[in-house]
Write a structure and sequence with these properties.
The complex is a heterodimer of chains A (375) and B (531). Chain A has helices at residues 9-34, 39-52, 56-79, 87-105, 111-140, 144-163, 189-195, 208-225, 227-237, 239-245, 249-265, 267-276, 287-297, 302-325, 331-347, 353-364, 367-374. Chain A has 375 residues and is an all-alpha fold. With 531 residues, chain B is an alpha/beta fold. The chains are: A mainly alpha (375), B alpha/beta (531).
Chain lengths: 375, 531
């Protein structure tokens, strides 16, 4: 049979990502074995390093926070059939927004006003950086993939220019702003827990993880429960139908890219307000790009994105541990494993669909029908 | 069928080109083909007719190797064979012309025809060979096409000719055509039928899949009728009538004529003055269109497709702004200075059933409940501000599904999983439920089975009787004539004439649709006679 039966939804959403990750791990295991280490041992170290060791879960969730924001950003744009490759630049500009607000107001505003303001600034700067390519796509027909990629470079150049110039803290050499005053800092989870009388290991995990989860709920409501979300999905599935329906397609494209850019920009909350407490060069370090793989693996659904973010967070944290424990497994090896996971769950995401569909189709067909067909 | 055709072949057993016995095919719970038998006599034009979803396409897909039958036997030229894929089918001399063409649009005719037969590294030698074969084929069968034309620049009729040439080039002796006239103008249909007759004279066996009774009557030698996945009859075309075939197709007597009472037109709802639409590269789609539509009347727009009817609907529904001219809806005036958009016009009471429901009318991956508010997502009666309530959407949808007999009545089923007729009913239910003052309807029954056609026609008449003004654009003259109170005829972007319901007949309309040239008016008898 050349046409497989349709894959059940549970298999598409649940089984396929699992199989993809498993395939990536098997290939990684082979590579680990080739360089002479025991792959099962390495696997154990990774799992322990991501979840078991003291403070490791906090690190995993801290990385996951970044991925949730950038993954959501890609997913929202994708619902309007827009490929936002510019998460990196939008996040970078978000860091500029948050940084500017903190630099200007951290001596005069209390934390309860300053932090929300800084969050809004990070989302706002990211939104503008997303909306400009959106405008160019909607009104000028410049392809969003090309423009968002170029906007990544623009963002990087602007940040180097500012951080090595105007925004550099006076009297120091490194390209970064001065540290913000403590009322611009998002509290760490371990500090909150301590205040509540619980003992938790120190980690960079901070309140922005909660903000990220709230953003997931917000995006779910936006996409599936709001009129705007309806318009976004209609535009994404069929521009002609959207035009027929009187949905202002150009406006929807610009709004969607603004929301997408805003989400990417909010990644800066975690890095700038949560951990660094100053704006530094290159703090986005590829999270924006990895967001594409996260969204792909999470099937553009907030729940899937949270799960995929956890996986990538665990990979980052467990990978660092791997680098630490094995002298033969270097930082580059860890990157290779991460690359394989991205390849299998992103680039080859649909590779196992057909075989699995055939297999399930065979498995789920009642036996008497199968017998009948042969006869 | 076979008994009858044996007689026509002078008593001796005629050679069979195709013999299918007891073919079965299921998709999950759907039994698409059930013990289907078919005998096609070599050198005949054999029609298979049936409603949408009767299993015609599945059957030919099995014959062409797209699907494997669950069981059953296939014999080609009296040899039992298995056909695993389309390459197998081509190897056995079967060619297929799909409803949607499988051509590379930016290749030339020659390049398309020789696709897959390029030979070695350099295409030059095989191109020359292919050119010779192509020229000979064109000559033998009267299929004149310039081999160096780029396919996308050819009219649809010629593109179809390229598809036929492609099949013949691969040595097809049996040609399957799946709904070949769906995309053709009446003139192109006549030309296609001439070609098919020429092919028959050269001994090619043709299997014609269609749901149009007229075409079966005009060209086929034999006809098989499918209903609900089964073959219900094999007949000799000369021995049957459209009424008998229609009855066999739906399994009951159908009222092809609509119960049409005289209209009681009221005040004007739509008044268009000198609407023009010119594209950036200077092509006039609409030229000085002026028309008036009153409450409680159906005005049909007849015309060969591509003469501005689609553009007229786009302008009146606000999708495209006119380049000059204006129109009134009620008391609101829409001009080039004060343009409108579809949502504004919907608020003025203009509903629109678009010509292409897959492209515009519904969104295939959306649930039926979501497609049911397309165009009304911002203005629907829920009035809940920013939010959409899924339970209200579902309730709303299932009420309409009951009222419009949409099957299956499942609001959460994806729109793509409904049959063509039911998809059209979703669109119609949505637009009629908006209680419009003016309904623009494009091709309401295109690709819809007879049962649903009847239902849709009744709904339109009922809406008119409630006082709605309806502008009906259709390429089906029967539909225009049975529904309209007045008929406007469009040709080359202009309204070239108006007829009252009583004065209109097929011939008269055909002449007007063709501009003035009498020879282009299309009737069944002309299709049959050829030109």
């Amino acid at each position: 049979m050349s046409v497989p039966p349709a894959l059940p939804r549970w298999a598409d959403v649940g089984l396929i990502p699992l199989i993809n990750v498993l395939a990536a791990l098997i290939v990684s295991g082979v590579v680990v074995a080739i360089i002479g280490e025991n792959p099962f041992e390495a696997m154990m170290v990774m799992i322990k390093g991501a979840f078991v060791y003291k403070g490791s879960l906090g690190y995993t969730l801290y990385y996951a926070t970044n991925f949730i924001f950038t993954g959501l950003a890609v997913a929202v744009a994708f619902h309007a059939m827009l490929f936002n490759i510019g998460g990196e630049g939008q996040a970078y500009l978000g860091g500029l927004g948050a940084g500017l607000v903190c630099l200007m107001f951290d001596s005069m505003l209390p934390a309860l006003v300053l932090i929300p303001l800084a969050i809004m600034a990070s989302a706002g700067f990211g939104a503008v950086w997303g909306a400009i390519p959106g405008y160019l796509q909607a009104k000028r027909g410049s392809h969003i993939v090309i423009t968002t990629i170029m906007f990544n470079f623009l963002a990087a150049s602007i940040m180097v220019w500012l951080l090595a110039g105007r925004l550099k803290a006076p009297g120091q050499m490194s390209p970064e702003t001065r540290s913000f005053s403590p009322n611009a800092e998002l509290p760490f989870i371990h500090d909150i827990a301590n205040a509540l009388g619980m003992e938790i290991a120190r980690s960079p995990l901070n309140l922005s993880f909660v903000v990220a989860l709230l953003a997931c709920v917000g995006i779910w409501v936006l996409i599936w429960r709001s009129r705007l979300g309806y318009a976004i999905r209609a535009t994404g599935h069929s521009t002609h139908a959207a035009e027929y329906a009187g949905i202002p397609v150009s406006t929807i494209i610009i709004i969607t890219m603004a929301i997408s850019g805003g989400l990417a920009g909010m990644m800066a909350i975690n890095e700038i307000l949560g951990v660094q407490h100053r704006t530094i060069l290159g703090f986005t370090s590829g999270y924006g790009f990895t967001g594409i793989a996260v969204a792909l693996m999470g099937r553009n659904h907030p729940v899937g994105i949270v799960l995929a973010s956890l996986l990538f967070g665990a990979l980052y944290q467990g990978g660092a541990e791997l680098d630490f424990e094995f002298s033969t497994i270097t930082r580059e090896m860890v990157l290779l494993i991460q690359g394989l996971i991205i390849l299998f769950s992103g680039g080859l995401a649909y590779m196992f669909n057909r075989p699995l569909a055939h297999f399930l189709g065979f498995l789920l067909t009642p036996r008497n029908v199968r017998g009948g067909r042969r006869g | 069928m076979t008994d009858a055709s044996q007689m026509t072949n002078g008593g001796s057993t005629p050679p069979l080109a195709i013999e299918l016995s007891a073919i079965n095919k299921s998709f999950g719970d759907v039994h698409a083909n059930r013990d289907v038998n078919l005998k096609v006599v070599s050198g005949h034009i054999h029609g298979i007719i049936g409603e949408n979803g009767a299993g015609k396409s599945t059957l030919v897909s099995i014959l062409y190797g797209f699907y494997a039958a669950d069981n059953g036997l296939i014999s080609i030229h009296c040899q039992t064979t298995t056909i695993r894929n389309s390459a197998d089918a081509i190897g056995k001399g079967i060619g297929m012309v799909h409803q949607h063409f499988m051509l590379v649009p930016n290749f030339t005719v020659l390049e398309n025809v020789m696709l897959g037969h390029e030979g070695s590294l350099s295409v030059e030698a095989s191109a020359q060979k292919a050119r010779n074969v192509l020229n000979k084929l064109s000559e033998d069968f009267g299929l004149a096409v310039d081999p160096d034309m780029i396919v996308e620049n050819l009219p649809v009729g010629l593109q179809q000719r390229v598809e036929i040439l492609k099949a013949l080039f691969r040595g097809a002796e049996i040609l399957i055509l799946d709904e070949p006239t769906g995309v053709l103008t009446p003139q192109e249909t006549v030309q296609l039928f001439d070609i098919l007759r020429a092919l028959r004279e050269q001994g090619v066996t043709i299997l014609l899949i269609t749901h149009k009774l007229k075409e079966i009557m005009a060209i086929t030698d034999d006809v098989s009728v499918m209903r609900g996945g089964e073959m219900v009859a094999h007949l000799e075309t000369a021995q049957t009538s459209p009424a008998e075939l229609a009855e066999l197709m739906v399994g009951r007597k159908v009222l092809l004529e609509v119960d049409h009472t005289p209209a009681k037109p009221g005040v004007p709802v739509l008044q268009a003055e000198n609407l023009c639409l010119t594209t950036a590269n200077g092509i006039d789609h609409l030229k000085d269109i002026s028309l008036t539509l009153r409450e409680g009347e159906i005005v049909g727009v007849a015309g060969v497709s591509g003469n501005g009817q689609s553009e007229l609907l786009d302008v009146l529904s606000g999708i495209t702004a006119p380049t000059s001219g204006s129109f009134h809806v009620g008391t609101s005036k829409i001009t080039t200075q004060q343009p409108s958009d579809p949502s504004k016009l919907r608020r003025l009471g203009v509903a629109h059933v678009p010509e292409d429901r897959h492209k515009c009318g519904i969104i295939l991956p959306f649930s039926a409940a979501e497609s049911m508010i397309l165009g009304y997502s911002g203005t629907d009666e829920q009035k809940q501000g920013w939010w959409l309530s899924p339970s209200t959407l579902k309730q709303n949808c299932s009420d309409r599904m009951q009222h419009f007999d949409i099957r299956p009545p499942l609001p959460s089923l994806a729109s793509a999983n409904f049959s063509g007729g039911n998809q059209q009913k979703i669109v119609l239910a949505r637009e009629i439920s908006a209680q419009p003052k003016l309904l623009l309807v494009g091709q309401p029954t295109r690709g819809v089975d007879i049962g649903a056609i009847e239902f849709i026609h009744k709904q339109l008449i009922a809406l008119r009787n409630e006082g709605c003004a309806i502008l009906l654009v259709s390429v089906e003259l029967d539909e225009i004539m049975s529904l309209s109170d007045r008929i406007l005829v469009m040709n080359n972007g202009q309204i070239v004439g108006e007829l009252a319901r009583e004065e209109a007949d097929e011939r008269q309309l055909g002449l007007m649709m063709a501009g003035i040239g009498a020879e282009d008016g299309i009737t069944t008898s002309q299709m049959r006679a050829g030109s």
